[in-house]
Design a protein that fits this description.
This protein is mainly alpha-helical. The protein has one helix spanning about 25-65; strands spanning about 10, 15-20. Strand 1 (about 10) and strand 2 (about 15-20) form a beta hairpin.
Length: about 70
């Protein structure tokens, strides 16, 4: 029977096997992850703003129409 695979985790960006104490396989993957998080936060904020605008429009427009 082959030897057991040592404990490891995978890089969240590229999927390479890395030691348990590491989060990313390289600085490039770390930077890509940071950009991804920043974009995700911006998109979430944009969605909240759009939802807020839609709710406001739903309550303001009907009162303006006689």
């Amino acid at each position: 029977m082959p030897d057991a695979v040592p404990q490891h985790r995978h890089c969240p960006i590229c999927g390479k096997a890395i030691p348990l104490e590491e989060e990313f396989c390289s600085e490039a993957c770390r930077q890509k992850y940071q950009k991804l998080l920043k974009r995700r936060k911006q998109l979430l904020l944009l969605m909240y703003i759009a939802l807020f605008a839609i709710v406001i429009i739903m309550f303001v427009i009907p009162k303006m129409v006689p």
